[in-house]
Design a protein that fits this description.
Blueprint lengths: L1 H4 L3 H21 L6 E4 L6 E4 L7 E4 L7 H13 L3 E4 L5 H14 L6 E3 L5 H10 L5 E5 L2 H11 L5 E5 L4 E5 L5 H13 L9 E6 L1 H17 L18 H16 L3 E4 L14 E4 L16 E6 H7 L12 E4 L13 E6 L12 H7 L5 E9 L5 E6 L4 E3 L2 E3 L1 H8 L5 E11 L3 E10 L7 H9 L10 E4 L12 H8 L9
Parallel strand pairs: 3-4, 3-6, 4-5, 6-7, 8-9, 9-12, 11-12, 20-21
Antiparallel strand pairs: 1-2, 10-11, 13-14, 14-15, 15-16, 17-18, 19-20
Helix pairs in contact: 2-3, 7-8
Length: 499
């Protein structure tokens, strides 16, 4: 296995050990494939459910865990009584052929397990998927290939099991113990040299500790020994092939071109073969491709938590959605400056037809031919829309709009605060001012003055709470904070709920 795909000998031995455990587990489960015997709903009959093998299965295994992914697929199929055709990755056929020999030596009947190797996967899989005798497909590999295989499987409506690529984030917050975070990050990133769909792909770190985390992780990455997997003490072997190394190189170069900084590595190894140095990158910008694509290599990109906050507003595009706008009272687009607030409006197939038996409300909601959502937002220069508040919750103080969500997000950053709700309270001078209702974390204390001072350090002063009240927040049975209860309490005795 080490000679075939490059991982260090110690990792190959570990894979063999846990790969064997799949056979152990499913052999035990084979004697527990029970049916079911129940009384019919009408009480006059009996229902007997029997479990039977699905039938011939096509198992397509990846190159990164060539033995364990084989045992994990073969074990349950054979335990259930299915015959199998195994197509290993073209880069690692030898490990699977060795496993097939072990199965034959153990007494698996001829014809139950069949291995087909090929340097042209499509030429093999398409005819197999078209064969009417096939009943199931199990595939572990890239997402694009998975899409194609699902398409081909649909012709015969095959059962499919897919384990596809990932882009796992690793989050480190300001209160993390950095030594433990770095140790966990190294394990999550460098299993199988980063060539694993479960590997951490991107590290989002709270801004105050981002630099320290990146330096420590880079130091640990740079200290890993690079070399042939058969050599003593080697911790990082070569990548699987030249295209894999080229992809890693291109992702790193793209990040550097966009402002990232190398902490360790950042270039191919000087050994003969497809080596890439364990790499730590700091200050990786949001637009870097490696934050959006699976790296599948020994590279740890660190982006600060402030960038992670930007990620939180990105959402996902929908190919059948019509345009969403942020508009002023005259239904004109607000400037894309990330500051000017307006209401979110939309139209298209995803928008409701109207309110049930309420034509007046429907006409109001669809003023100007656009559905008015009631959400207040800003439009950023890059086209993303960031929700700031519900229209009814915006506080108008001295003619200025204050987003209750912005104030709440600031208050909960205080280390003693567990949760917070902000509502408008009457003010004789300014009309309305924000008031924060705060629940503290168990064992923590804070005063009204401390909370207000903290907010004044992070917000424009007119947005800061005029008062703070501590205690439990009113909630629904599902945990949603009932801000209207707080608002009613503060405006009790007044005819209007706006000043």
């Amino acid at each position: 296995m080490t000679l075939e795909m490059g991982k260090p000998l110690a990792e190959s031995k570990t894979e063999l050990a846990y790969g064997a455990e799949f056979f152990c587990w499913f052999s035990e489960e084979a004697v527990r494939i029970d049916g079911r015997y129940t009384v019919a709903p009408n009480g006059v009959g009996r229902l007997l459910t029997m479990r039977q093998p699905v039938g011939p299965c096509l198992l397509i295994t990846p190159w990164n865990f060539p033995m364990a992914m084989g045992t994990r697929k073969i074990g349950p199929a054979v335990a259930a009584g299915c015959t199998i055709v195994i197509k290993p990755a073209e880069q690692t056929p030898l490990s699977m052929l060795a496993l097939a020999e072990i199965l034959a030596e153990a007494g698996l009947p001829k014809g139950v397990s069949n291995v087909i190797t090929s340097t042209s996967p499509g030429a093999i899989t398409e005819p197999l998927l078209s064969d009417p005798r096939l009943r199931k497909l199990s595939f572990t590999g890239s997402t694009p290939v998975g899409h194609k295989l699902i398409e081909q499987s649909a012709r015969q409506i095959l059962r499919v099991s897919m384990e596809l690529g990932g882009n796992a984030p690793f989050l480190i917050f300001e209160d993390a113990v950095l030594e433990a975070a770095v140790e966990g990050a190294l394990i999550a990133k460098m299993r199988n040299m980063g060539e694993a769909c479960t590997a951490a792909n991107r590290f989002h770190v709270a801004a105050p500790v981002a630099a320290a985390f990146a330096e420590r992780l880079g130091e640990r990455m740079g200290a890993l020994k690079l070399g042939r997997g058969t050599e003593e003490g080697v911790q990082v072997g070569p990548l699987i092939d030249q295209p894999a190394r080229q992809k890693v190189s291109q992702l790193v170069e793209d990040a550097l071109d966009k402002g990232a900084r190398v902490v360790a590595g950042g270039e191919p190894g000087h050994h003969r073969g497809y080596f890439y140095k364990p790499t730590g990158l700091a200050d990786v910008p949001r637009e870097a491709h490696m934050l959006h694509e699976e790296v599948f290599g020994p590279v740890a990109p660190v982006a600060s938590f402030d960038q992670a906050r930007l990620l939180a507003r990105q959402g996902q595009g929908n190919v059948i959605a019509d345009r969403v706008r942020v508009v002023d009272e005259a239904l004109r687009d607000v400037p894309c400056d990330g500051t000017t607030m307006g209401e979110v409006v939309m139209h298209g197939n995803h928008v409701m037809k109207g309110y049930y038996e309420n034509p007046g409300a429907t006409a109001s909601a669809f003023t100007g031919g656009w559905f008015h959502s009631g959400d207040i937002a800003v439009w950023h220069p890059d086209g993303y829309i960031e929700l700031r508040d519900r229209k009814k919750d915006v506080i108008i103080s001295g003619g200025e709009n204050i987003s209750t969500i912005e104030v709440e997000q600031t208050v909960v950053r205080h280390p003693a605060v567990l949760e917070c709700a902000v509502v408008a309270i009457p003010d004789e001078r300014w009309g309305e001012r924000p008031k924060a209702f705060v629940t503290l974390k168990p064992g923590h204390t804070a005063t009204e003055r401390e909370i207000i001072t903290f907010c004044r350090e992070h917000l424009a002063h007119f947005k800061c709470p005029a008062a703070v009240e501590f205690g439990d927040l009113p909630k629904t049975s599902t945990g949603k904070i009932q801000k209207y209860v707080l608002r009613e309490r503060e405006w009790m005795g007044r005819e209007k709920r706006i000043n």
